[in-house]
Design a protein that fits this description.
Helix content is 49%, strand content 21%. The protein is built from 28 helices and 26 strands. β8 and β9 (353-365) form a beta hairpin. It starts with a helix and ends with a helix. The chain binds ligand C2E and calcium ion (2 copies).
Length: 840
């Protein structure tokens, strides 16, 4: 038995050629019986040969000798004159058991003497059976007939004749006939004895062999079979099935070793399976494995998510757990093997719906497609997003829609107006007169309370189709829809509504024991109008409002007259900006950059944000808010942005060459959507980096949600290209747009800049739910960290805000509390004073 060969060929990856096997139980006894039979047959054949030899020997020796002796004795008896003794010779011969008969016949055929007296003097052919016609003359004839077991010996014999004196002799024949049956019988008996002896010996041998075969072959094989079956059932804790030695024992040892090896590999498998299960149970995602819908496996989070135990889930159809509105799409994707991330609503055991984001992957297991579904409950995130949106769009103090929300309404209305000709609306801006005086004399708290009660009073008297919003400070907006008729009619109707509101404002207001007499000025713009841009419309309404206030007549001013004026002012600004951008470098620069520090939580300088300023020859230093919008709409933002990029990068290079603190500094640069969309933007950034030899990660581009929302695929591609050059990205003004975090998380954004309006909320009073709206900041920070983004808070002005943000694990801080944006020289001086002024 070659124990090693099957395993070694198997491990070579070759199939061992099959070896023939037979059923020992059948073939062992059969073979033994056959051997026994063959032995007996051989034996009988040999015995038969021997018997024939015996006969031949009898014929050639015994019978021949007897014939010759008898002839001599007969001749002796015949020589005696009276021939006495002849009968005695033959009688004696008759005593031999094998002699059938014997006779002496003379030449005339007469029997002279015979073993049977009755034949004497009879004619031989009458009495002697088969008496031959031709008789031998000189030879002894032996005629053995084996079939009748007859032997006849014939010999010529001279019979003396005494006729008177003359002695002559005549020819006689001596015949002895043997019946060999008795000899055959004894031989047969001998054979029979032999066969009996050998037959019994063979049967005994067969039995012994069978016993041995059963005891030492079949029984061990049975035991091995039983052990193999036990192993087959997965029970690997076996004892050696055999004792002793031999090939089967080697097989038994091999079996025990195999079981041992299997046991340890099974234990290893169980260990790794347990680890895998722990790992998957530890996952915050619910994991399902399913094949064609049938759930194969789930982790603990999946059980917790749906409220079922693992045994209830396994075997169930996963599609039955999906709500009908998602089910067809999910089934389709599963059937076509699509992989990806999407949203699904599951039914919880209690019937409630769980909205989850699932990541579906497909693998082949044993040739079958198995889908791995990782689901994450996004209800908290959706709720937080809804809350963020709510707070981002409603004013925390008065609960009125804020500027953002108002602009949404206007956008929606513009859409309607476009679709329904003849539909008209009006947008009014209202600003309280001398409100600053109330804040200054009675305190901010009274000012806030006055705004709150005024808002309440105005909202309660507001008719249908009119919306009041608080744009900022003491400026409100009234949005009137569903106006109809000619422009004049609609304007008159709007004017009346606004005057009614002004009338309500003019009614005395009781606030904390003070009676306030308020008044306001209003400007209004009609929709449709030349302008299709909601912020532009609001600006126009405000322009008209400022004119009304300047006139001081408390009348409602319509924008129409101001239109031309403002347009020409914008034109002027645009031309000036164009000139500013085309001034050759050696000439005095009108554009310049200020840099605002960004601090980390340890109070160290993390980076700076480059903010553009315009040193206008006649109007003085203009903040970006006054010209960026115009630059955007005229396209001048592209050369402007390019200049900022170049200038900011050069500044960083200068500082890094001169100051140790600038080595790890990050330079944040604002990029407008239009600039980002320029085809050569990526190349421009790359050449700037290469020319200046700036380190990786030293530039951080600030994008707004509008860039991102515009064309996700193209934006993503550009961002990925830029990332290869070590450029990082920040999302500016987060919270003011609509993009959900789940949408943004597909983009490689490093930093989330929480908009200043959220930071202001930190100091705001608790709202009616008793919650500080600032808790939202915590939600944003937590979510951003989950998405691997760091969070920067903008517009940090007070220590309270800084402390709150620090507790909420905000990473980076920027705002007047640390420093206003500074020109280059002032910044370097400020950096040297940090330890004393800021860190504590
Ligand atoms: P932004 O990107 O959100 O920049 C922050 C603005 O908030 C800056 O105004 C900054 O001076 C101001 N700020 C910083 N800390 C505080 C604070 O504690 N309190 C208050 N009240 N304000 C603070 P700035 O410089 O007037 O810039 C206004 C906007 O103009 C920027 O908003 C940005 O959107 C745009 N802008 C500025 N420079 C560039 C530029 O180079 N390219 C482009 N495309 N846009 C620019
Ligand atoms: Ca910015
Ligand atoms: Ca910002």
């Amino acid at each position: 038995m070659t124990q090693g060969s099957p395993t070694s060929t198997a491990s070579n990856g070759q199939q061992p050629s099959p070896v023939r096997s037979i059923r020992l139980q059948l073939w062992l006894p059969l073979t033994l019986a056959l051997v026994g039979l063959l032995t007996i047959l051989t034996l009988s054949y040999l015995e038969h040969q021997h018997y024939q030899q015996e006969l031949r020997r009898f014929t050639e020796h015994t019978a021949h000798r007897q014939l010759l002796e008898t002839r001599r004795a007969v001749e002796t008896a015949l020589r005696r004159s009276d021939g006495s003794g002849l009968d005695a010779v033959l009688s004696e011969l008759g005593l031999h058991p094998t002699v059938h008969f014997a006779a002496l016949v003379d030449d005339a055929g007469k029997v002279l003497a015979a073993t049977r007296f009755a034949w004497k003097h009879q004619h031989a052919s009458d009495v002697i059976p088969d008496y031959p016609q031709a008789l031998p003359t000189e030879h002894v004839t032996l005629d053995l007939q084996l079939d009748t077991l007859h032997l006849r010996t014939l010999s010529p014999i001279a019979i003396p004749l005494q006729t008177g004196q003359i002695r002559s002799h005549r020819q006689g024949t001596l015949l002895i006939d043997y019946d060999l049956t008795s000899l055959a019988a004894s031989a047969a008996q001998h054979t029979y004895k032999q066969i009996l002896l050998f037959g019994s010996l063979s049967i005994l041998a067969v039995l012994v062999l069978l016993l041995l075969g059963w005891r030492f072959m079949l029984r061990p094989i049975r035991a091995l079979q039983a052990t193999i079956a036990t192993i087959g059932q997965g029970q690997l804790d076996i004892t050696a099935p055999l004792k002793g030695e031999g090939e089967l024992m080697e097989l038994s040892d091999a079996l025990v070793q195999t079981a041992g090896a299997l046991r340890s590999s099974q234990a290893a498998l169980a260990r790794s399976e347990a680890q895998l299960r722990q790992l998957s149970d530890a996952s915050q995602e619910a994991i399902f494995f399913h094949h064609a819908g049938t759930i194969l496996q789930v982790n603990r989070t999946a059980q917790e998510l749906l409220g079922y135990s693992a045994s209830e889930l396994v075997g169930r159809n996963i599609f039955d757990l999906v709500t009908p509105d998602y089910r067809p799409a999910i089934e389709r994707r599963a059937a076509s093997g699509v992989q990806g991330i999407w949203e699904v609503a599951f039914y919880h055991r209690d019937g409630s719906q769980i909205i989850a984001e699932v990541n579906a992957r497909q693998h082949l297991v044993d040739g079958q497609p198995v889908r791995v579904i990782a689901a994450r409950d996004i209800r908290p995130r959706l709720a937080a997003e809804a809350k963020i949106r709510q707070l981002a769009h409603f004013d925390a103090l008065t609960g009125l829609p804020n500027r953002r929300q108002l602009l949404d309404y206007v956008t929606a209305e513009l859409q309607q107006v476009q679709e329904q000709p003849g539909r008209r609306a009006a947008l009014a801006a209202l600003n309280l007169d001398n409100f600053k005086a109330i804040n200054d004399s009675l305190g901010m708290a009274v000012g806030d309370a006055a705004l709150q009660s005024l808002a309440k009073r105005l909202s309660s008297t507001l008719p249908q189709h009119q919306t009041l919003a608080r744009i900022h400070g003491d400026t409100f907006a009234l949005f009137i829809t569903q106006l109809s008729g000619s422009l004049e009619a609609a304007s008159a109707q709007a004017g009346r509504s606004i005057e009614a509101v002004l009338g309500t404002i003019a009614q005395p207001l009781q606030v904390r024991g003070h009676t306030l007499h308020l008044s306001a000025g209003a400007g209004v713009v009609m929709i449709p109008n030349d302008s299709k841009d909601p912020p532009e419309l609001l600006r126009e309404a405000e322009t008209a409002m400022h004119q009304s206030k300047a006139a001081g007549d408390n009348r409602v001013r319509f924008f129409a007259h101001a239109l031309q004026e403002a347009a020409s002012a914008r034109l002027q600004l645009r031309n000036d900006l164009k000139t500013a951008l085309h001034i050759a470098p050696p000439a005095p620069q009108e554009l310049l950059l200020h840099y605002q520090p960004q601090m980390n939580a340890q109070g160290q300088l993390h980076g700076v944000e480059a903010l553009v300023r315009w040193q206008h020859p006649s109007r003085g230093l203009i903040p970006p808010g006054a010209f960026i919008a115009e630059a955007e709409s005229s396209g001048l933002i592209v050369p402007l942005g390019n200049w900022v990029l170049q200038e900011a990068a050069q500044a960083l290079r200068r500082w890094q060459d001169a100051h140790a603190w600038a080595q790890p500094l990050s330079m944040a640069i604002n990029v407008s959507p239009r600039q980002f969309r320029e085809p050569d933007f990526v190349d421009r950034v790359r050449t700037t980096l290469e020319q200046l030899g700036l380190n990786d990660l030293s530039l951080e581009l600030e994008l707004t949600e509008s860039v991102v929302a515009d064309n996700l695929a193209a934006t993503l591609e550009k961002m990925q290209q830029l990332r290869q050059y070590g450029v990082r990205f920040a999302l500016d003004d987060f919270g003011t747009g609509y993009s959900s975090l789940s949408y943004l998380k597909r983009l490689p954004i490093d930093t989330l800049k929480i908009d200043r309006s959220f930071v202001i909320d930190i100091d705001a009073p608790a709202n009616e739910e008793g919650k500080r709206p600032a808790v939202l900041i915590e939600a944003i920070i937590t979510m951003a960290h989950q998405l691997n983004m760091q969070v920067l808070a903008e517009g940090v002005e007070t220590p309270a805000q800084r402390d709150y943000l620090r507790r909420a694990h905000c990473d980076i801080f920027q705002g007047y509390f640390f420093s206003k944006p500074l020109p280059e020289g002032a910044l370097c001086a400020w950096v040297n004073s940090i330890p004393a002024s800021v860190t504590q």
